[in-house]
Fold this sequence. Notes:
single chain; Methylamine Dehydrogenase, Chain H; four-stranded antiparallel β-sheet
Amino acid sequence: MKSRDSIFLTLLWSGLFLSFFTLHARDYSATPLPFASSLPSREITSLHQDREGMIWIGTTHGVARYDGYETIVFKSDPLHPDLLTDNSITLITDTEHRVFIGTQNGLNLFDKQTWKWMPVLNGAFCHTEIKYVYTDKKQQLWIATAQALYRCDEQLHILRRYDLKAAVTSIYEDHAQHLWILTWGKGLFRWDAEKDHFTGYPAIGNANIPFVLFQDRDEHYWLGTWGDGLFRFYPERNGADMYEHQDVADDIFFDIEQDGHNGQLWMLSYNALHIFNRPTDGILHFSSASVPFDRNRMFSTLLRDREGDLWLGAFDAGYHISFCPEELSGHSLPFIKETLGFDTNINCMYEDEGGVLWFNQERNGIGLYAPDSGTYNLHPYSQKRNVEVNLIARSRFPNTVWIASAFVPTVFRAQRQGMDIRFTDTLLLAHDGAETGHVTGMLEDPAGRLWVMTERKLFVFKPDGHPLAAVTNLPGNVNALCEDQQGRLWISDATGRLSCMHTYPTGIRPTTRYKLPLSPHDRIRHLCCDSTGHIWMATELGCLYSFYPKASKWSNHTLSGLPDMSPVLHLEAIGKDLWLVTPSAVIRYNPEKRTRHTYNTQDKHVPVFAFRNNASCTGHKKLLYAGGHGGFITIRTDKPQPEVKPDKIFLTDLRIEDRNMQTDPCEGFSWNGGLIVLPPEASRIEFRFSSLTYSSSGNIRIAYRLADLDRNPIQLRAGVHTAFYDRLPKGTYTLEVWGMDENGHTTGPSTIYTVVKRPRWFETWTAYTAYAVMFLVLCICGFRLYAKHLRKKNAQLLREEIARTKLEYFTNVSHELLTPLTVLSCLTDE
Length: 830
């Protein structure tokens, strides 16, 4: 039995962590800002989400933009001294085509269409501190400087200048599109759009410094002041009755937001972060639950994004408050680290009828944990026994389990009494562990028989605990076993056969055997049976098969539904869905629709770094438990399968040879909306995309195709967002990109971009024309030279012919003359 001191410590730790579990495990996860390490400074002064969904972060040393994957920093530095008028950012807003960044020394514009920065170097917004920038629902831009308040259009044409003779602390537009101006020392004003006039309201408190105004989803107004605390604001009342002071300790409030999930109000005061439950009755009620971070940090700003999550900025980065899906809860069990000094590392677990989890903490032994109350016991033994186990299985007795030892061939039956454990039976499989090996599986059938599967043998024990038989008539070692809806036992062995077992008074033997359609190098590791009578099998190599005994029909689900499934640690059929636990994810697979949903260890709501072999089980409230290194998660299996449907994919960045075209564009590059012009020498081109969703980016897949170059669309893996092209030929291409869910189905319209790769100077039409002219000139010159050569050659031939003709002529003449002379000569001689 535990001592009084240990009981006291247990109750103390339970009380300390109870409220933490209630909120942290079920409501939201608070993780450090994912872009904190990439910021130019961790001192965040402003957070803003633009119309497309980009998160803009203002700091004391520059501004950054986050798209869910990467962060791009914009600031003036020695290489870009004129990028911003000042690196100390005050506030950020945007319109349809531009982002406006206010600084301590002027205003800066970022053109979304051209990706170019345009510092304002003259006019009313030059060389002055920008106190506030705000875009109303009519796309009018309100800019407050130290001198006055200006109403402008998107092109910064001043429509009206207002001199309120006070510094503007904030500007807010309520649900009815009433614009409120809060000033330092002059109180609260409301702008009348028809009369273009400001109406003043009665003074608030002693200092009359309203600092932040917020209207919640129940139409309640909350007004935070600088020095007089927090007020409930009633615009319809008269005089001092408009303001109802709230009983909150702090007297300075500067930011208020309401989350989009449970409607809690998050308020930043000078000293702390305050969280109030949704004030449905108009009265603030403090949230009693703790938060997994220090509320008294130097927080600076709050942002609620389009998905209802919160971004909490501080002077040392901050947090992303991401609300968990309705069906998922995460439990990190920090009391294990606090009590034992070990990281939470669960290697097996089981939930009994009382809703208490039995688990084994690596290097410590069995522990008990009640998720509903948060109570726990890490040393729940009524006997002095240190039991290191590797498997916990169900028993037919209430609050009783079978436990397999990790080091000896022994099985224990243990019963929970309150939050203590009593060992009732010990079953020794063999005196020598080399004869059996470790226990790899246990199952108690409806008749009370306990089937124990080891690495080398299969044992069956009678309900009274005495050995019935060791099954020796199987052709190979048993790899997996399960029980179907009719109470029959199915076993797979090392020879690749599936057997249906039957128990006789004289022994046990398989009644029917089926040959498994496996490759010679694969074998079954897990079996389960669903409500329709199908037997499901998961293999060592990650293949998934189903078998329907009534029709002797096999089906392969590996390539159709689970193309990239890793080795399965646990297989369970619940309702119409199949649940597979892998080292890095829990997969929910619907065989009918061939769809799936994945809960990854990379998800911010999952505290588990790696799931363990036997740390998965099903609960009595339609819950699936999956644990490992870092804690465990619970998933409500009765909830519909979540759907991840990105609406649109955006091109958020483009790099050429690792050179960012937004911060350091190369010569010849231009971006104009949907037209991208690349310089001739561009190589190693990277297109980077994002859906601009932050809660489910790990399950979103992206597909793209560069027309006239890619024959088929290219589908990226989940989490990959880059398209890479090297040595892209010159020409005009159509880049088409679209989003897909985790099943590979297109979920929204495609986004089209035109990509123009400029030719090199020797590939232009001017060069081709020059080439043609040069070719014609060469042809003409060649023809003329050839003609000249022909004329010369013909003249030579003519001369030779004339000479030959002359020679023949004179030869013939001399011959004709020689004949009469010869006759005369002969006559003369005679």
